[in-house]
Design brief:
The protein is α+β, with helices and mostly antiparallel strands and 417 residues long. The chain contains ten helices and 20 strands. 23% of the residues lie in helices and 30% in strands.
Length: 417
Amino acid sequence: MVASVRRLHQWRVMMQRAMGMMAPLGFRLQAVPSAPRRTLSCAQDVLRRTPLYDFHLAHGGKMVAFAGWSLPVQYRESHVDSHLHTRRHCSLFDVSHMLQTKILGCDRVKLMESLVVGDIAELRPNQGTLSLFTNEAGGILDDLIVTNTSEGHLYVVSNAGCWDKDLALMQDKVRELKNRGSDVGLEIVDNALLALQGPTAAQVLQAGVADDLRKLPFMTSAVMEVFGVSGCRVTRCGYTGEDGVEISVPAPGAVHLAMALLKNPEVKLAGLAARDSLRLEAGLCLYGSDIDEHTTPVEGSLGWTLGKRRRVAMDFPGAKVIVPQLKGEVQRRRVGLICEGAPMRAYNPILSTEGTKIGIVTSGCPSPCLKKNVAMGYVPFKYSQPGTQLLVEVRRKQQMAVVSKMPFVPTNYYTLK
């Protein structure tokens, strides 16, 4: 027993040293022009703030710059404790930095399908899907979730780091289609966005809603009152691999909702550090690291996001590049890697067992659940099969790594049986 406790302590110390407490996402304080949608309390502070900024400070949040926003990387508990609490109970994340938009009008599906690879027309009312903005070269401009709401609009959530790019892309397409006589429009949703993630998330949330959450499976959505806050859109999804929800809540009610959720002892606050290691264990991509404009969906192992009808019609940006890749071998592929020794990090070279550089790591960290080092990276197709032995160069030393299936930790999404 003492030996087990000692090993756990040693692993925590190694994790903290490896993660550097603020290192998993490569945080750097940055000066970014403020957005009109958030009021800044300090004139000299140019980082955007979510409606929960003061709430984070009051609860011990260690604030860092991320994608132009001031967000908590962790709270008083360690990153490892937050990570494991999410896997065993549930955690509350502030993801209000994400861009939320509504696509309106009779031609809203036409607009969205002119930009993404997914089959938006086939979505049932209040059903959502992960999709990708692509360019004509087949590169991924961003990943996003599109929900076909029963209120007559598409609800879109995309990445904060691509805020300006995504908004311009959609606005330009709105203007183009309007000039052709289409009925379409766009609105920014100025709500906060809270993610409650973990195996007990639904149980916690059920106490504050009248709707039966057993009837809300993964990637479906509904508008409801949540702990007294009306007009909340609850979507069964998340970025951790666990069951959970994302709640789009009117900004004035965000702190009230967060406080109501925290009254349940199952719930603890978690920050960006835990969010990053959780998504990596779940095999989920971080835009700008694991996928970007120079990565196609097939290279990124995201070919499943392409709607079957869209593949046949080849009517999305980059289809002439992407669709043929589905039928043949691509030059490189995103894979999972597991190794012992020092943690793998972005930009570490991946080598063949003969020592030839064949690829590069895009994300990596020690896995709190597996107590092994996990990573994603790109290698030539012939090296992409699970079980393939490779080398990774970490701190100028070569160490063995093996290609692994993803997710590294099994996902627990809630689906109707």
